[in-house]
Records
---
Amino acid sequence: MKAFTRETSTVVFVPGMNCDTDQIIPARFIKADRAEGYDKFLFHDIRRDAAGALDPDFPLNRPGADKARILLVEDNFGCGSSREGAVYALVDAGIRALIAPVFGDIFFNNALKNGLVPVRLPRPLCEALAAHLADHPRAEVTVDLAAGQVVLPGALGSHPLVLDAFARDCILRGLDEIELTLTHMDEIRAFEAARIAANPWLGR
């Protein structure tokens, strides 16, 4: 996965309480080849009108929204089924961080395993940020994982960014759990060789 240390970006507010993984990526697209990118499926059904055309009023369809690397979302984002494809769709669309009061638990952990930083801030602060963005759509937010802080625009200040230490280290290094294991191959091989030397029957 792509390493994340610090991202400064404009922010798109995507409203909607309890936005579940089927809204983030409808189930019918999960069988698609990931190598071709899941970004085209992101919010597929809710960002289109009844005729299937992109709705110009949907936040991510507005001019310049595709440049944003941070989304502000509402309570319980990513609830519902455990599909990891919801995170793939966001990552493939270039989203590096999400800000919300609360995330769905499984979605939160899937995000960490794919280098997508879920930032939890108090609800009143998220609401204040949404109000600020409504008046200042070009305002930027900095998510600084290395420094452990989130810097909001205007007078909204700087706030701690707290993640599990193991997940934080993996994201900073750009390593998922398999890639992290592979960094220890010399020690693994040495252990296997010593174990077989001490127990020759294991090598038969």
Note: The chain has two domains: 6-173, 176-204.
---
Amino acid sequence: MSSQMRPGSTDWSPDQYLLFRNARNRPIHDLLTFLGPGYTPTSIVDLGCGPGTSTEILASRFPTATLVGVDSSPSMLAKARTLLPNTPFAPADLRTYHPPKGTSLLFSNAVFHWLRAADRIPTITRLLRTQTPNSGGVLAFQVPANRDEPSHVAMREAAAAPGPWRAHFAALPAAQRPDLDAVESDVEFYDALKPLCSTVEVWTTVYTHVLEDHDGIVEWVKGSGLQPFLNALPEEGGVREGFLAEYRRRLEEGYGRAADGRVLLRYPRRFVVAFR
């Protein structure tokens, strides 16, 4: 289960995602920092490993642990294998994937928000149940919580605006609609996971990314939330370009410029660490 799709295809684009590699890596480091310097898992599964950047950080932080990465995207797995040729990577859909029983650390960076709301908590709790109770097993993940941010509101508004793209979006079945379901609140995650855990920690961090201009926001979300919208549109006839122009216009309305002309992208992320 990966987090970036290549336009005009059913796979994802590692290169587009990696345009903002350092900024996208910050939540990974923050999540691991919470676990503390003395935390030493013996086995790790990187759930939705993408291009392997999170797996690389895990390998560096826990060099003695058994580590495997899984993802649903062939192109992401290919990129990950290039980055870490000695680490095993395997295709998997998190809705049906069963990690090795008793895995010490189930880690996931920006993946579970891609699941529909009806699948999200059942998938997370099923994965959590593969860890032995009172064993010290940990499930640690973060998901963007930005559905109501201007960057994502503008996607939905642009899709519904008059233009040749609107018919393409309207024709999609409900299960294939490109807008993501809102992620659960702190208390919803806590209430769902606490019956299975000794301790559950939940918090939200708001990151602010300084970008050169509004085109920077477009390039950022092309590697994530905007990709399903682009994938629903034909490459020919200027439909996709028209939609992007409408989207960018709405970004200009939603984001003012700083004194130096740059644009600040506000990006909330929800963190969950569950101790089995």
Note: The chain has eleven helices and seven strands.
